[in-house]
Design goal:
The complex is a heterodimer of chains A (602) and B (123). Chain A has 602 residues and is α+β, with helices and mostly antiparallel strands. Helices cover 63% and strands 7% of the residues of chain A. Classes of the chains: A alpha+beta (602), B mainly alpha (123).
């Protein structure tokens, strides 16, 4: 859909970004040392850190992606909410405290605390970089998606710009702003940006949920039956809707907004305000119009056809509604593996994400790490409960863009007026800023601390360590921008699911075994990280979604039997670590004094 | 003059606290893992159960809808989110605090002589 420029949206957006940048410059004056830049001097208050956890974690995937998935596919989006939160249980109960005791700046510190091994330093650093970049991609996709309706830019610019459009402009803006934040102030400003963003996100989503509940449902009949087509010309400079140039002028046509209920329980036409569970029950007992998409090629042009169908609310509130998880409803066990594998990856992935792990070094001790995780779980859990209401509200708002499910949350806000749209869009953009700055911090800390100082033994002064981190931040930011454009066809939550698979496969086996198995060796850790990283990455890049959206090939030719590798590659990491540790155990030197696995006999 | 008195058993105490906290964490983790595995199993193999609406049936056979008649899939999802928070709170309550690290103390001349006398006495 094409969106008109809104001064109000632009003003609110500029206000938010200006405030975040101003705060960043102000706090930047206080972070001159390496410990200040990378770990905020280890003096962040546990409550601030807990909300910052939420700000760090509730990325574009959580806000834009989950709302979009629920709005278009129902319960399958909520599966991500459940999985993302469950992952925090692993982080709190298994990883948080021992990791805090063992590390200094990065999670490679913790892995290497027992061995002082070059292999661990290198493999952990590469793993951190790859996971961070994988997680950065969906954030950039989210930023690109948001900017077009905010600024009212054309989807595609003229031919001279080679198909560049508003998406690319959005990626460029978020890249520049985030690099500025990270370069100016490091972990202190990143923490405060995340704290503010986490608070705003939860509070405004609560307000939006209350507005949804107050509005209730209204039935709109008859149900639409006509298909809509969106065609992108072969040279990618023009778009057509139903055969006409896309736009709002004469002889132009735009996609019609979708998302309606056609029948309510008992033949009612509207429900009025509803309590939360009554809201879900009413939806469950209603009939809703769902739009499915099919992509075809015609003379080099890409044709996307959107087809309406009527489904019951109860059917939408069961797993298996989306293409990703349709195997759940299949009688074959193999078809269900994608779902089971993703849930395992989400459960194991949170505790393996480098940008989450480094936040444990910004508080002073294990107790503060524990308390901040509990605050994080409370904020994040509450937000994920809200996502279900936001998603259902979007699905029935009659404001959805069938061509872009990542826009569901901002468009839901637009159904209440321009101001809610402006605020929610600005918060969504700040959401991207908060997460991206945390990821770039993790990547720059890894290069400057793990690689340059520890692996290559470069003798860097405190000041040079900070400068090196800033240079890396610029480089990683640019890489993220390029990859964001390359992956723009994907749903952001789906991409984050990939990042969880890679993180859990590469990092979790080593972290858990180091903490709980005395016979773990440095060779075991190095090989487990390398094998987990390579196998999960290779699997993802050979899966059907990569064939379809990345290489534009027939997805049925994909080599990987299903798209989510976690169910294979996470256990593989554990097995490899155990086998290699047993084979190399006798050669191991004595543990460093003071190190003990977390579970030693009392 | 600056001196410090490190209790000889602090590192032993610390090991004990860490091991106890780790055990509590693992027990709570195992409980949640059961809940989560149950959810995955139901979602993958029990679609009919997930689609059911929760209700109580009294001795007279009357049906009383629970949770406004919302289906099991939604209720189980909410339960997992709330259970994570409740177990996290429980963990915070059950964990032992680390023994306080002794601070470096500046002793006065009088305190030093008193300390020396008490050490001589105990010897």
């Amino acid at each position: 859909m094409k969106y008109d420029f809104s001064w109000m949206a632009m003003a609110v957006f500029a206000l938010f970004v200006g405030f975040v940048l101003g705060l960043s410059f102000y706090l930047g004056r206080k972070a001159k040392s390496a410990k200040g830049y990378y770990a905020a001097h280890g003096q962040i208050n546990w409550f601030i850190n807990g909300v910052a956890f939420a700000g760090d974690y509730l990325s574009a995937a959580s806000f834009l992606g989950i709302c979009g998935l629920i709005a278009f596919f129902g319960y399958d989006g909520f599966l991500y909410s459940i999985g993302y939160l469950a992952g925090w249980v692993v982080a709190l109960f298994v990883i948080a405290e021992p990791l805090k005791r063992l590390g200094k700046f990065t999670f490679a510190d913790a892995l290497d605390s027992k061995f002082n091994s070059q292999g661990i330093k290198l493999s952990a650093a590469i793993s951190t970089l790859i996971v961070s970049v994988f997680y950065l991609i969906p954030q950039m996709v989210g930023a690109g998606t948001l900017i077009q309706p905010l600024l009212g830019l054309p989807t595609r610019f003229p031919a001279a710009f080679h198909g560049v459009g508003s998406f690319e402009v959005g990626v460029l803006i978020v890249g520049i702003v985030v690099i500025t934040i990270v370069v100016t102030a490091g972990m202190v400003s990143t923490t405060w940006v995340q704290f503010i963003k986490g608070s705003l996100l939860v509070v405004f989503c609560l307000i939006l949920t209350i507005m949804i509940l107050h509005r209730g449902f209204t039935a709109e009949s008859p149900a639409p039956t006509a298909k809509q087509t969106l065609t992108v010309s072969a040279d990618k400079t023009q778009t057509f809707v139903n055969g006409k140039v896309q736009g709002h002028g004469t002889d132009q046509e735009d996609l019609l907004p979708v998302g309606t209920i056609v029948e309510l329980r008992g033949g009612k036409t509207s429900t009025g305000p509803l309590w939360p569970l009554d809201f879900i029950r009413e939806f469950q007992n209603s009939k809703v119009v769902v739009w499915t998409e099919a992509k075809t090629k015609k003379d080099g042009a890409e044709v996307r056809t959107f087809t309406p169908s009527v489904k019951t609310g109860n059917e939408m509130l069961l797993p298996g509604g989306s293409a990703t998880f349709k195997g759940v409803r299949s009688p074959k066990f193999l078809d269900k593996l994608d779902f089971i594998s993703l849930m395992i990856a989400l459960f194991c992935g949170t505790a393996s994400l480098p940008h989450i792990l480094i936040r444990y070094y910004t508080v002073k001790d294990g107790a503060a790490a524990r308390k901040s995780t509990v605050v994080g779980i409370a904020s994040i859990g509450f937000f994920y409960v809200l996502t279900l209401f936001l998603g259902i509200g979007a699905m029935t708002s009659h404001f959805m863009d069938p061509s872009n499910n990542n826009m569901a949350a901002p468009l839901l806000a637009r159904s209440f007026g321009q101001l809610p749209f402006a605020v929610i869009s600005a918060i969504a953009f700040t959401t991207v800023l908060g997460t991206v700055s945390g990821l770039i911090m993790a990547a720059s800390g890894t290069v400057a601390h793990d690689l340059m100082s520890n692996f290559f033994k470069m003798s860097l002064s405190d000041h040079k360590k900070v400068v090196a981190g800033k240079v890396v931040a610029v480089f990683v930011g640019i890489v993220a921008m390029v990859l964001g454009v390359a992956f723009k066809e994907f749903n952001v939550t789906f991409l984050v699911g990939w990042a969880f698979n890679v993180a859990a496969s590469a990092n979790l086996p080593s972290l858990v075994m180091l903490l709980f198995w005395k016979r773990t060796t440095k060779q075991g850790i190095t090989v487990a990280i390398t094998v987990g990283l390579i196998t999960s990455l290779a699997w993802l890049l050979l899966s059907a979604p990569a064939y379809q959206n990345l290489y534009h090939l027939d997805p049925t030719h994909a080599i990987a039997p299903f798209s989510q590798p976690g169910i294979v590659t996470i256990p593989l990491g554990f097995i490899v670590l155990i086998v290699v540790s047993l084979l190399t155990g006798k050669k191991e030197t004595a543990p460093v004094e003071g190190f003990e696995p977390a579970l030693t006999p009392v | 003059m600056t001196t410090s008195q490190e209790p000889p058993d602090r590192s032993v105490q610390l090991d004990g606290v860490w091991a106890y906290n780790a055990r509590v964490g693992l027990v709570l983790f195992s409980i949640y893992l059961l809940f989560f595995a149950g959810f995955i199993a139901l979602a993958a193999f029990g679609k009919d159960i997930m689609a059911r609406h929760m209700a109580l049936i009294d001795p007279d056979g009357a049906v009383w809808p629970c949770f406004s008649g919302v289906n099991v899939a939604i209720i189980y999802g909410f339960f997992l989110i709330i259970a994570a928070f409740v177990l996290a709170l429980l963990y915070m309550l059950l964990c032992l605090p680390e023994p306080v690290e002794p601070e470096m103390v500046e002793l006065t001349e009088v305190q030093i002589s008193e300390l020396a006398q008490s050490e001589e006495g105990s010897a």
